[in-house]
Structures are given as C-alpha cells and as structure tokens.
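Take a careful look at the sequence and tokenised backbone pasted below. I need to know what the token row says about the fold.
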Amino acid sequence: MRFEHSQRLRTGQHMRMVPRLIQSMEVLQMPVAELQERLAQELERNVALETAEPGLELESTRIEHERPIAEPDASAEGFERLREFERSYGDMLDGEAPRARRTDGERDGKMDAMANTPSRGENLAERLLHDWRLADVAQELREPGTAMIESLDADGLLDVSFDALRTAYGNAAWNDELLTRALRAVQSALEPPGIAARDVRESLMLQIDAALAERDGAVLSAEDRTAFEDARVIVGAHWIDFLENRLPRVEQRAQMSLARIHAARDVLRKLRLSPGRDVTDTDARPVQPDVVIEYDADRDRYVAALADGNLPVLRVSPVYQLMAKDSAVEAETREFVGTNVKAAEWLIEALHHRSSTLLRVVEEVIARQRPWFDEGPEALRRLEMSEVASIIGLSTGTVSRAVSGKWMQTPRGMVELRKFFTGGVETADGEGASWEAVRQMVRDTVDAEDRTHPLSDEAIAKRLEERGVTIARRTVVKYREQLGIPSARHRKSHGA
C-alpha cells in the first residue's frame, strides 16, 4: 500500500510538472525580442500578472548582473523540482583577424564600434553560399551546387530546369545524375528545410521529412508524428485533390479518416511556403543581443550580463493572490483567479529559469572559449553541447534551447552563441581546435606565404602540424577550396 501511494504521488507530481517544464522550455528558447512580445501578450490576458515598480525584486524577472544567480525564494523548492525533472526528461522534450587582448584597462574604440555595429542584412544567395562553402560535400558537387544557389528565387525555390542551368553556366558536362546529386546535397546541407525545392510541393515534402527526422532537435509527440506521416502521404500522392479540397476523394483513395486529414492539414499550415524569405531579414534590422560580454581589466576576466533591460519586471498581483484564498469569494471566481495566479507564478518561474540557465551556459562558454575572446577566431576550441550540459548538470536538449537564436555582444562584435559549439581536431596541447579555427589557420598560413614560392597543400599541412594541429593534405585542400583560395600554382606571383 505504501508503495502504491508513493507511485501515485510521483505520478501526480509528474503530471503537474509536465506543463511547467514545457512552458519553461518554450521561454528558454525565446530570443529576447520574441520574449518581449510574449510577455506583452501575457500581461494583457492574465489578470493576476502585473508589472512591478522598479526596485521590487522579490517576484521580479530581473536578475542583478554582478551577483550570484539566486532562485526566487518563494518558489525555490518548485524551481529545484523543475530543474531535477528537466535533467531527467529535458532531452525527451526536445530537441576577423586575431587581436591582442588589451590589459591596460582602456577601451578599444574600434572594438566598441564593432560591438555596436548592426549586422548587415545578407541577401539569400550570400547567406546560403557562406553555409555551402562550409558544408561537407563531395568536391564535384560544389560548382553545380553553387550555380543552383545563385539561381534560387526570392522564395528560396529553384525555378529553373537542369537544361537552363547547363546553358546559363556553360557546362555541358553537368549531366542530370550529377545535378540531381548536387540538388540533394544543397537541400540537405542548408537551412531552413525546404530550401532549393523545385516547387512548393517538393518544399513541403522536404520540410515534412525534416520534421519526421527531428532535424531541429524537437521531439515529436505520437499525435504529431502521425499527422506528419499522413501529411506526407497526402502531399506525395493526393496533392491536387487536397489543393482542390476534394477531401472525400482523399479519404477514399488514401484510406484515411477525415479527422486524420484535418490533423495533417493543421501541421501543413505550420510549414513555410517561402522558406527563402525566412533566411534573410529584408529590413536589415540590427541584431538584438541577449547577453552582453565585457572585459574587466582589473580582474582579467570577461563578465556576462543579460541584455534584458527592455523586459518588464513582473510580479503576481497581491490583490489577486488574496482573492484566490478568500473563502468569501464565490467558488467559480476564486477558481478563475487561482488559475491565473498559478499561471503567473509559473511564468515568472520560467523567466528565472531562462535567466539562470542562459547565464550558466554563457559563463561556461566563456571559460572554455577564453582564447577566442583573447585572440580571435583562430583560437576557437572544439566544444560540444553535451560537454557543457554535463558540466552544469542539464540535458543537452536544454543547452540547445538556451543557445538557440541567441546573440552575444562581445568586445569582438556581435556573435551568435551557437557559433561557440563546434567540432574540431585534437591539438598537441590536448585542448582541441575547432574546424573554424583550423580553416582560419589555413587562411593565415596562405596570407603569410611568399607568393613567389607559394606553399603546396602538403607544406600547409606541415605548417599547421608545427602549430600543434595535425590534418591530412586532402583536408587542407577541402578547407582551401571552401575559403575560395586557389591552388599554389594559381597563387604564384612571377614578379614585375
């Protein structure tokens, strides 16, 4: 009996924690601009949620920047339960030239300017070509893949035939088999899913496949997986009937109930009809940082602070808290108020969780990637999300959500937080160098060479080995080509 009671208790706690965890994960994943919109909506629809006067911190969302992160006293026990639940189930719910560091305490005007310069909006081709150069694909696919990317329309679709590509780029050797392979490589290597499809139908199929493969880290529920699988059948085999709303015919031919068809339609509505328009910001608006990193010369350390100054300071209304407990208030009203009070408490708890988690991740990134902050891109180390997750006691999925879409304002400019998580190679000092750092080393080695006697790929590999990085000659070739660096023969200068 005691065992059954314990099981029922744990089950009840589990059921109560799930919606809190889901909300916490949603808030955690939001960049600060999106979070502003979410909080404005919550303030409008939740009567028990209100803004606090400046200086009220007990139930506020604000966390002071130069002090240890503290959990809200009123919900410390619940917060810890949430943290423990997240550690157990978080993954199931997922899913510049080097500069010397200044030590004299003076601000570097150029670095300040870099840090505050809005990012220039890239056009679609620029953004995708950058990613394509870094993609791990066969060499024979690079040139035709580049041609396809340059030929995409504003929606991100490839609205030209293979024959037109061959004619436009003057390469009759690009047979259909090669171009098909190149197209598949572009579609699989680039984000978002659906890019480089030849029509809307193909784009939707690519997005459905990406969702079913859980490419973005999100874990599908059983219901959503069924809906996506049904959507794939409908788009693949019954597209015209579906477009023309001949649902009874789809029902009959696909042997699928109307309820399943409607569920499939609902997930299709969430997909992008123009994936290319999601890649670039046509307004070229400045990136809004979630975290600001500054160098403290006195303590020789980098300090992280949340860039949350525009977020409202929230609290639960004391009036509604009392009303929720007042037996003189009619039961229906008391239940309504109590539900809103609880929702407000959960939201504030989720905001504290977001702040705490984001700062913990950033502080670990700073500790592990200190050389990048001191020396620049060449010093970027290999770092996996699982490593950070293990160190700070969170799931990998939670770390992924914490960095998703987040930007940091650093002394070296505005940098996407995800950039600091990358694979790489072992180095002689055992620290490891990121692939991006190795590419930068290749570029620096070529830039420093004597152009009358340019270095061969083998010689470049030996130069990197002298610096503690061992890679094969073919890897040098791959990175050189990704960087757009010609071979030694084509780099040679014959003088005046």
About this structure: Strands lie at 49-51, 291-296, 301-306, 314-316, 407-410, 413-416, 424-425, 433-434. Residues 19-93+288-413 form one domain. The chain has three domains: 19-93+288-413, 124-278, 423-491. The first helix runs from residue 2 to 29.
